[in-house]
Backbone:
């Protein structure tokens, strides 16, 4: 057991856990922040994507010991009231079906837009490559990312 | 014959028993109390509060198909509600909501659209009566409008009328609106759950947190039908955080105070299994079993004219095969149970809360009145969540541990302990008349029965025939035979059930006949749907005009004719397929544009989809469901295959069971036929035409006929 101090969505947290415990389970089980989803536990599906020190990472592949003194942003903290440009664009395009992968998709998209403020379809293919959706919302995700960038979604493969 | 639809019909009825005065509302164990007279519940499914808030309870599970939003639209339309005041909650198995049955078979809209309209209309009439009484005017001169009852220049908000309305006797047959007056139904309405879904607030099954709840991970026998021989749990119990190790009927559960400890404890278990009679089963043996079974006749499930006796000496013959498939929902299976003496609360993302009740009663020893199943959002369903296994495991754990327990499947658990889409093998023969039209068609196919695998009381073929026995085309001599060949692999309902494989076979074979007759595949289909009269095919009624119309619409929007006249780029092809999904009243045709690379790689660039689902309640959602059916179908068409070695499922993650990702995702265009016919289902019908449209496009691109799913580069190169 190790004591690890870090911040989540601007709040300072301290936990006493197995140092190898993935950040995913610390958030979900220890801290009760369930917006970050468990989809595979192997870093393959992207459902647990969040921001660690400003980078998009997979929480299931991030041991808590590597999070010490760092800042974590989860879907719950992306904006106070669901009004981040990506969240607004998501609602506008009515992206979600079951919605389970969407927190990870949104966190990945928000990071992608930091790297590419006006992403091309190729940038979206590459940047969103490892976020799986089984309901098949990819086309609407693509459209929403373009819209969040302030670009029309009809230019590429959009809705 | 008892059919799947009959079964769903019997279990899907909406209780309209009016429950006045109101009962306290409960959601996930939180009881919200109301001051007397502050609200109005004309049925268990609707409540209007004094502040004007409108709450609707959905009696079908939400797994992404948008049913909660369309149910709310049906109520709000009749009620003349202000849409911004509408909220939706989920009905539990509490008796006031009636039997929730199962959510599946694309039956929810068909089964609940009218009942929910009646709920809204009943409330509207009561509110009108309350206002008319108060104003001492003829109620016929009053009307409901955007959250108010209006009479001349006077108006009163719904919320101000609830106290009076709740004292009135509900009308028996409230009038329903004329569809030409609809102002919500037929418009693009965004899903009510959207804001919760994008903010992380939405509560899925795996997000349930109860005080004192333990997290369980279960090690199950890797071979279907195997039994536990011995357990050494010393090391598992030594893992910090592990609280219990419990033997349950499916295996050994490790319960801990967090998921990570439960997973580590499970890793430390030393178990021995008696693998039983299936220990040497593999995919090759199953295929040999199917091949042998296909040589002898099956049960004739449809015969027209002389059947196969009319096959001439010159025949076109082909063999098709389809693999077993896993569901692979984004949220792996999960269930929470809290079993106490005399009471059991379950929180489970279930498609089958009603179906599961018998198993829960058996596992708890309690009566239905002591059990309540609460249904959070489902992180995907596709049929998998109609099974009760994840609930029963949680019940067995909680019963022993005496605290609430969540059983969380890992991704490998989810893929290796599924209830799979059955694999099948098909043989088809046809003879053509001089005109090129099929004179005789014989389709014999074999595979295991889902109904038999689940021990259902339905005839074993009831779950296997759609897309085969209900072939829509006019063929004078037709014989369809189903040859049952069961396996020990657990089976279940997978999006579109048999229509996930049969239309691949029949729509590709029809394409083969069109090419043999030197006809355009679209024109060929249309000439086999010439008659306008509706006719019975199998157990349902086909309207050939509707199927023709979606074929023509998809072809027109895809530029079918221009494509076939133009000189096309090498390796590019266009294919068409259609399916009349008669069980849920919807017709879909799709045109796929593919590119086949020299290394065999198949790239799907575009899918044009035409759908006639009767009245289009929420076009925005219909388009979403078509997009979803196409992408789910594309994963299966290009990649999906569950195989067995030494009795074990080989695939365990999205690395070994790949699915479509962003870059493989084609452009999808959906065109909806305008219709005033009763609304049909849309969850499943987008899937069946996709695989045959792609295989037909591959033929158009390369001249190679692929008759085996999935459509892999290796098969392209070998063909």
Residues:
């Amino acid at each position: 057991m190790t004591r690890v101090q870090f911040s989540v969505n601007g709040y300072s947290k301290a936990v006493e856990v197995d140092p190898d415990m993935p950040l995913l389970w610390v958030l979900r089980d220890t801290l009760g922040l369930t917006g970050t989803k468990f989809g595979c536990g192997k870093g393959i599906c992207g459902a647990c994507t969040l921001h660690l020190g400003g980078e998009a990472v997979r929480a299931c592949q991030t041991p808590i010991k590597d999070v010490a003194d760092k800042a974590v942003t989860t879907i719950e903290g992306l904006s106070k009231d669901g009004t981040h440009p990506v969240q607004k664009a998501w609602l506008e395009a009515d992206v979600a079906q079951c919605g389970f992968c969407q927190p990870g998709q949104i966190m990945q998209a928000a990071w992608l837009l930091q790297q590419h403020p006006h992403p091309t379809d190729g940038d979206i293919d590459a940047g969103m490559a490892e976020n799986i959706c089984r309901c098949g919302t990819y086309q609407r995700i693509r459209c929403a990312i373009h819209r969040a960038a302030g670009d029309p979604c009809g230019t590429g493969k959009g809705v | 014959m008892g059919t799947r639809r009959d079964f769903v019909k019997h279990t899907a009825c909406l209780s309209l028993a009016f429950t006045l005065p109101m009962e306290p509302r409960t959601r996930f164990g939180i009881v919200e109390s109301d001051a007397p007279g502050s609200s109005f519940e004309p049925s268990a499914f609707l409540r209007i509060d004094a502040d004007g808030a409108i709450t609707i309870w959905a009696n079908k599970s939400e797994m992404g198909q948008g049913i909660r939003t369309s149910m709310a639209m049906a109520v709000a339309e009749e009620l003349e509600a202000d849409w911004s005041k509408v909220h939706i909650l989920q009905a539990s198995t509490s008796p006031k909501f009636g039997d929730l049955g199962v959510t599946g078979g694309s039956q929810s809209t068909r089964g609940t659209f009218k009942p929910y309209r009646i709920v809204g209309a009943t409330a509207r009439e009561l509110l009108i009566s309350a206002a008319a009484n108060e104003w001492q005017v003829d109620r016929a001169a009053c009307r409901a409008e955007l959250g108010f009852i209006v009479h001349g220049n006077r108006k009163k908000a719904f919320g101000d009328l609830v106290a009076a309305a709740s004292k009135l006797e509900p009308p028996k047959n409230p009038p329903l609106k004329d569809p030409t007056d609809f102002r919500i139904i037929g418009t693009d309405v965004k899903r009510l759950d959207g804001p919760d879904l994008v903010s992380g607030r939405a509560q899925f099954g795996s997000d349930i947190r109860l005080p004192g709840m333990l997290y369980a991970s279960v090690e199950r026998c890797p071979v279907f039908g195997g039994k536990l021989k011995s357990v050494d749990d010393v090391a598992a119990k030594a893992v910090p955080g592990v609280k219990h190790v419990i033997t349950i009927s499916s295996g050994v559960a490790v319960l801990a105070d967090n998921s990570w400890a439960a997973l580590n404890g499970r890793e430390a278990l030393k178990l021995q299994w008696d693998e039983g009679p299936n220990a040497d089963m593999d995919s090759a043996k199953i295929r040999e079993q199917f091949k042998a079974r296909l040589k002898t006749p099956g049960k004739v499930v449809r015969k027209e004219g002389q059947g196969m006796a009319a096959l001439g000496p010159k025949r076109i013959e082909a063999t098709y095969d389809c693999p077993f498939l896993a569901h692979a929902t984004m949220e792996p299976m999960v269930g929470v149970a809290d079993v106490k003496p005399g009471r059991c609360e379950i929180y489970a993302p279930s498609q089958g809360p009603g179906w599961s009740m018998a198993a829960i009663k058996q596992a708890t020893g309690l009566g239905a009145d002591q059990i309540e199943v609460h249904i959070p959002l489902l992180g995907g369903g596709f049929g998998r969540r109609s099974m009760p296994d994840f609930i029963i495991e949680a019940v067995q754990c909680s019963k022993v541990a005496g605290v609430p327990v969540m059983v969380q499947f890992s991704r490998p658990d989810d893929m290796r302990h599924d209830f799979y889409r059955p694999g099948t093998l098909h043989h088809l023969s046809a003879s053509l008349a001089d005109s090129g039209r099929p004179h005789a068609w014989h389709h014999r196919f074999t595979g295991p029965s889902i109904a038999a695998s689940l021990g259902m009381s339905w005839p074993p073929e009831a779950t296997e025939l759609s897309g085969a026995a209900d072939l829509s085309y006019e063929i004078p001599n037709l014989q369809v035979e189903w040859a049952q060949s069961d396996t020990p692999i657990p089976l279940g309902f997978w999006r579109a059930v048999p229509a996930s494989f049969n239309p691949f076979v029949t729509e590709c074979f029809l394409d083969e006949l069109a090419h043999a007759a030197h006809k355009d595949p679209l024109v060929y289909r249309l000439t086999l749907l010439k008659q306008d009269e509706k006719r019975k095919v199998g157990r349902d009624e086909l309207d050939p005009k509707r199927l023709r119309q979606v074929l023509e619409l998809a072809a027109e929007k895809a530029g079918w004719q221009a494509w076939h006249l133009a000189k096309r780029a090498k390796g590019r092809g266009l294919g068409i397929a259609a399916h009349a999904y008669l069980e849920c009243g919807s017709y879909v045709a799709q045109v796929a544009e593919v590119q086949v690379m020299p290394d065999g790689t198949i790239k799907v660039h575009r899918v044009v989809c035409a759908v006639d689902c009767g009245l289009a309640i929420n076009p925005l959602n219909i388009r979403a469901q078509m997009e979803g059916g196409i992408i789910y179908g594309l994963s299966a068409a290009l990649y999906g295959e569950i195989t067995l070695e030494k009795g074990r499922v080989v695939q365990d993650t999205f690395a070994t069971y790949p699915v479509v990702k962003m870059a493989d995702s084609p452009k999808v265009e959906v065109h909806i036929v305008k219709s005033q016919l009763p609304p049909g289902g849309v969850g499943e019908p987008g899937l069946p035409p996709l695989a045959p449209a792609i295989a037909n496009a591959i033929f158009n691109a390369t001249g190679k006929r692929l008759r085996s799913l999935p459509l892999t580069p290796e098969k392209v190169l070998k063909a």
